[in-house]
Amino acid sequence: xxxxxxxxxxxxxxxxxxxxxxxxxxxxxxxxxxxxxxxxxxxxxxxxxxxxxxxxxxxxxxxxxxxxxxxxxxxxxxxxxxxxxxxxxxxxxxxxxxxxxxxxxxxxxxxxxxxxxxxxxxxxxxxxxxxxxxxxxxxxxxxxxxxxxxxxxxxxxxxxxxxxxxxxxxxxxxxxxxxxxxxxxxxxxxxxxxxxxxxxxxxxxxxxxxxxxxxxxxxxxxxxxxxxxxxxxxxxxxxxxxxxxxxxxxxxxxxxxxxxxxxxxxxxxxxxxxxxxxxxxxxxxxxxxxxxxxxxxxxxxxxxxxxxxxxxxxxxxxxxxxxxxxxxxxxxxxxxxxxxxxxxxxxxxxxxxxxxxxxxxxxxxxxxxxxxxxxxxxxxxxxxxxxxxxxxxxxxxxxxxxxxxxxxxxxxxxxxxxxxxxxxxxxxxxxxxxxxxxxxxxxxxxxxxxxxxxxxxxxxxxxxxxxxxxxxxxxxxxxxxxxxxxxxxxxxxxxxxxxxxxxxxxxxxxxxxxxxxxxxxxxxxxxxxxxxxxxxxxxxxxxxxxxxxxxxxxxxxxxxxxxxxxxxxxxxxxxxxxxxxxxxxxxxxxxxxxxxx
Length: 597
Prior knowledge:
By secondary structure, the protein is mostly helical. 66% of the residues lie in helices and 2% in strands. A two-stranded antiparallel ribbon has the order 1-2. A two-stranded antiparallel sheet has the order 3-4. The longest helix is centred in the middle third of the chain and has 36 residues, at 303-338.
């Protein structure tokens, strides 16, 4: 797949090149080169949209070879390399400037590729610095060439800004904050002046470049000693919407680096009346930025931004919990070797419980935020009938997840004996059970199951009253929870609406069987007591009686059984029966021949 992708790039480069070169205008004032436009288009079309610096570096190398071949600017032959430099006398064609620009871009993209790889291989950082210096050197060459009177003023300014940006990147990686900040400020000033000098369409690109440079300037200011720079970085991340892209990744990286420096002073954290030492760097960085993340979520402009910030916070929390879990495994092995009794919850285990609490409570708040958004959409009238809108079942699922997270909260290690915590969790579960029950009732209303919905509304009121009675003993336990009194008011209103709908449905019920009978071809003679407008009665085939009529049962001929015969005793008839005499052999012979008859 990768080789196919590279082959497609090579095929498309021949098509893209003439279009790019059309942008490299030669004005009446001299040679003009749209430096920022060219590099931005090339980066977006050849890998940097997905952060693939290696692909962009390969594109720069191939374009350099095509330019050298087109201009006849070959550096030796296939057997020997002979270095050649572009001079001011050669500037008869704008492509000589493009040649130097592509050399700088190739070195810069290689440096950025090595920066990604340096996260796992620290030795590559030395090569990264070498490539960045090389890119800055090519940028300086481009700036000197643009000082020629053959080059127009706009190209000169863009070359100065480009060189300042590359120089600032070198100083930034060397952690020379003051020099880096000066270079970035110079770059920013030039682009702002260029943006103000051209139309709004052309100024958009310059403003985007200024936004990319601003986080680096804030970070340099923080390292120089400006304590407000961290807050400005957080505001920039908030305005970026917490989304993806290179800008967001750069902001996240700078904020993480800033917190890493602040985390060196953080040694412990207090929660539920217990102070726990924090020795894991990842946990320090996360806990240090927890307040900033929560403040950013609270200040989010819209629900989409808030959702992205919640996801970022949860991802950081999961990574931190995983790091603490690895340390717990090591601690468990050490206990097994030393045969220590594991009675009291260790500090590391309590820290794990604290981080798990943060994760689960963040899940609760995120789902609650999503539920509020769905509730607002549920109350809006649906304009598009083909588009599926939100349903009460969607909210039921969200509250199921909330209740599951709260159930996990009550089982955290080290908090089994904390009765106040257990009561608070139980109270929160009652609140969200009431809301879940409310939306289950609404789902029954949609299918006109009035009695079931009414019973569920009564249960919602029962939960709400129980919450209000228990909240009096727990101070400030409802400040982060939805308003129960508002739910009670809404349930009472829904109950009245439900009763009215049920009465109307009952009144409409007798008409429905009549309509059904007409549809079943019930004749008029069988529905004389019910009035209904039936247009078929005045038609050619009115349904007056059923013909032929149905069979009806009639009494059949009775059958008689003589049962008395079994109980009758008949008189003896022995005296009437003829007695046979005893004849012997003589009688037998007489009988044969008929003499005895």
